[in-house]
Amino acid sequence: MNASPQCLNLWHVCETTRLDKARETLAAVLAEHADRLVGRFYEVFLKHDEASHFLSHSVVVDRLSPSLQRWLQSLATFDPNQGIEEFAERQRKMGEVHSRIKIPVHIVLEGASLIKSDVGEILLSNHGNREGATAIVLLNEVIDFAMLLMSQAYVTGVAQRAKIEEAYRLFTLGQDVSVERESQRAALLEWSQAAIFSLFGGAGGARLKPISQSEFGLWFRHRASVMFQGSIMLNSIDAAMKEIDEQLLPSIDSLPSLHGPDGAAPLVANLQARVEEIKFLLADLFQSLSASAGGRDPLTSTLSRKFLPSILGREVALSQQHGTPLAVMMIDADHFKQINDTRGHAAGDAVLRQIAEIIADNTRSADIVFRYGGEEFLVALVETNLEAALEVANRVRAAVMAAEITVGDGSKVHATVSIGVATHTGHPDYQHLINAADQALYRAKNEGRNRVIAA
Amino acid sequence: MNASPQCLNLWHVCETTRLDKARETLAAVLAEHADRLVGRFYEVFLKHDEASHFLSHSVVVDRLSPSLQRWLQSLATFDPNQGIEEFAERQRKMGEVHSRIKIPVHIVLEGASLIKSDVGEILLSNHGNREGATAIVLLNEVIDFAMLLMSQAYVTGVAQRAKIEEAYRLFTLGQDVSVERESQRAALLEWSQAAIFSLFGGAGGARLKPISQSEFGLWFRHRASVMFQGSIMLNSIDAAMKEIDEQLLPSIDSLPSLHGPDGAAPLVANLQARVEEIKFLLADLFQSLSASAGGRDPLTSTLSRKFLPSILGREVALSQQHGTPLAVMMIDADHFKQINDTRGHAAGDAVLRQIAEIIADNTRSADIVFRYGGEEFLVALVETNLEAALEVANRVRAAVMAAEITVGDGSKVHATVSIGVATHTGHPDYQHLINAADQALYRAKNEGRNRVIAA
After folding, report:
1. Are residues A156 and A38 in the same domain?
2. What rounded mean pLDDT belongs to chain A?
């Protein structure tokens, strides 16, 4: 098994009779106060938004309380010398379920902590002090053991689920989005047409379906929210739909007549304006996809900075595990603002493209080049020590200085770069490596630019 | 702040003088035993493979021990009435760092548990019992509070990182893999050519570079391991490279002469065989990509089952939150094996395609259709109650029965389906919904097939 019962210290240090007495005491307290303890635990649950909006009161009472009761009982009867693997398996199972039903581990930890405090309080005031104290330590050790097993399974589940969710989101983006865009635009227009017809069909007309219940409304709630995760335009569309369903449609419905001076004309115009608004927002949403989907910077074809934590974290770990060196270059175009200001953006773009090309020519297929900022590149040189990294950096610096860069209009521009180089020194946090390269770059800038400085 | 100090029970129930005394006692014990406690904590770390292969002894001693010392001290001086947010922020920061440097939360929990046990032991034996017990409860509450804050930040970090990693993996797959395949095949052949030349260049030849140090070797370690994550072919390639570098090359190197009866011929043949093996495995690796990359079942264009946890989990949560209904249909082709056996696989494929088409015709764009198994589909009908779901199921059943399905050779085949329908009843675990639909399907099969049964 994974988690060692080393943390069940009491079984190593405590004589059997004292331990047995403590288990007995604990079992009695847990049995006597079971209902209150379970109640306390779920108070914590329902207090947290992450859990309460999801777990209704009835779910808690009907389904979770009995299982928590059983869990409490199992704590008092637990004996690491008998069936430890069974106990461990049950805790892991619970951790898995929590990750599936999205009960955050910190809420479970908080609930468990409350139970420990409560029981501790009772034990201290009702029992002999030494006996009570042993029972407190016992309960703590067993609950902590359960918590670490649960957390481990929970974290594994959360990470797996996060991967699947991201894969699904990217999958929906990779689908033929132009088809989806057109079919949802059509679904929206279909609803608005049906709405107008139904309104002017008079009292005999069929009752109007709310837009949130339409094909478009369903798609919006169940699909768009995944595809366009995090976009603020989602909120605007949601608000427009709510306004239609909760204000405009009821107002129109309650009119005595659709014609005449109190007629529906202004309301219908309003309705149409809201539908138009949704149509524009929808187009914008799909438009925004193409801009953000790629993993590469469109100008220089270097890797998007968003992958940096994943890749550098992995490379630092590989370096640590295998004892291989790892170097990072931070490369910044000198006087870039000036080039942009005096020669125009096309010249600036040409400079960045040329620098990226020179970096690519001087690195291997396993090295990784990121567009790190406006005029900054970060390069991870795998299995490369400081000496070799400085050599690469100097080649890049010399090549940029020597290059005659052609702008789109045929004119030429020259550029230089400053480079900071750092190597992995054993610190497990990749952020330290980036910071070190950044500081070296800063010094290279300060000392006159067009130079390479090692951290 | 997020985590309520409600779990710091002692501050609510304990009179100030008793609490102050307990804090004093605790501070003294933590200061006296700091070195031993830190040592105990890192014993746990280094015992676990997940942490030890990453954290070398020197990293632990130089960097982590001082920060753990400071953390221990902060536990004794912590007072929720003063600067609780500062304390909380520090714990969250630590959780973030742990997620970045991949120290699993369960190991931190285990270490913390050990510290609690150890200190508890000391307090029980060296101090007045009531006073010792209060100090134990105090330490437990403060450590548990720290742990829940740390876990929360850790889990957030892990989930974010898992998403980025998956996005990067999928991004590398989405690149032009045929270019990558060819260039790495070329890199491999380049190494093997250089190897042969260098061998027969005799004693004057340049020293041979190990294959693991070649462009191909670097690519394999730093790129292929991401692109082909989890493939067992990676291990085979790794083993072949190891054999080359650790056995074949040293044997060839140590030969007195490359010619004559003790010559290199058999060893070189062996080397060539290993390179060929790697070449084939590499081709297979890239081949395997196209099969697994898609999110849809290639035969029926329904969604891959791998997205099920993400989508159903989300739909169950939406249903729970908004009080909207949710239905699941489990649809299974009747006597499918028989169709395959008597009419051939083309007929079976045609039946599955036809069923998928009929399902698509009878569902809306927000509903989700999965290929669940060989001849089984799972359909999530969003915002649909049992009555409406049964209607859809019966339409699908009738349409399949009525369809005359054309096989590739022009012949016709008929098929029926059995369908189990279940609706979300409030259980937060989507697996219960699937099980319920599955059991209903089982009954539909048992009761004679070609029918719809509600759970």
Report:
1. yes
2. 86
Q: Which residues of chain A have a CB within 8 Å of the CB of B184?
A: 365
State whether residue B321 sits within 8 Å of chain A by CB.
yes
Given CB atoms, is A6 within the 8 Å cutoff of chain B? yes
Asked if this assembly's ipTM is beyond 0.95, the reply is no
Instruction: Identify whether residues B102 and B182 lie together within a single domain.
Output: no
| DSSP conformational letter for B229 | T
CA B239 to each of CA A105, B6, B220, B245: distance values in angstroms, whole numbers, following the listed order? 40, 55, 12, 10
Q: What is the mean pLDDT of residues B67-96?
A: 89
Domain housing B267: 177-293
Contact between B373 and B302 under an 8 Å Cβ cutoff? The reply is no
Q: What is the CATH number of the domain that holds A113?
A: 1.10.490.10
A10–B161 CB contact, under 8 Å: no
In Å, how far is A412's CA from the nearest CA of chain B?
Answer: 33
Cβ–Cβ of B133/A133 closer than 8 Å? yes
The C-alpha atoms of residue B73 and residue A285 are separated, in whole angstroms, by 52
Which residues 103-122 of B have a C-beta within 8 angstroms of A? 104-106, 109-110, 112-114, 116-118, 120-121
Residue A186, chain B, CB below 8 Å: the answer is no
Confidence of residue B290 (pLDDT cuts 50, 70, 90): low
Domain end (from B293, B318, B353):
B293
Name the B residues in 60-99 with CB < 8 Å from any A CB.
Answer: 63, 97
For residue B363, give the DSSP letter. S
Residues 6+ apart with CB under 8 A from B55: A428, B45, B46, B64, B103
Same domain membership, residue A134 and residue A62: yes
In a domain, residue A257? The reply is yes
Is A99 found in the same domain as A184? Answer: no
